[in-house]
Amino acid sequence: ERVSLQGSDLADGKTSISHLESVLPAAELVLQRLMGGASSGFSKSETARMKAAFLRKRVPGADQEVYKEDLAAILKHLGYIYSDEAPISQMADEISEFSTLEYEEFVKFMYSYAKFEHGKFKEVFASVDGDGNGVLDVEEIMQYLTR
After folding, report:
1. Binning pLDDT at 50, 70 and 90, where does residue 104 land?
2. How far is residue 113's CA from residue 99's CA, in Å, rounded to a whole number?
3. d(CA 54, CA 144)
4. pTM
5. What is the DSSP string of 90-136?
């Protein structure tokens, strides 16, 4: 299936590839996150993207706070796949009783969420890895795709 860029900002030249690369997470970082969660910490570029997303969504008039209700949007912006409100709220509430998170609390939340998402990926992988050998072969992938 082909995707048409006709009528899009990219086709009109309003959005450049370099702009997209600057706002989207690098594929290498996404794969690194999938393989190890936040166990190895965040890279400098990932930390910079987190800070930029935090500042973009900060509470008006406050330099270093974001509303908890904005966390799902921030996660989506950063390229996280699971954005269910229940675990997001639960993790945020464990960090702060207030309706906002300060930057240091936000970073703590991001570590927790990265570990959570990594666990979800491991669950999906295990459900697809029928023989449990830690490797997905073509048959297992085809079986998963045709469910």
Report:
1. very high
2. 18
3. 36
4. 0.71
5. HHHHHH-SSSEEEHHHHHHHHHHHHHHHHHHHHHHHHHH-TT-SS--
More confident residue, 29 or 141: 141
Q: Return the half-sphere exposure (C-beta side, CA atoms, 13 A cut-off) of residue 99.
A: 3
- CA–CA gap between residue 69 and residue 85 (Å, rounded): 9
Q: Are 88 and 71 in contact (CB under 8 A)?
A: yes
What percent of the chain stands above pLDDT 90? 39
String of DSSP letters for 15-71: S-HHHHHHHSPPHHHHHHHHHHTTTT---HHHHHHHHHHHHHTBPTT-SSEEEGGGH
Residue whose pair of structure tokens reads 């935090």 in the numeric block: 54
Highest mean pLDDT among 15-19, 95-99, 126-130, 137-141: 95-99
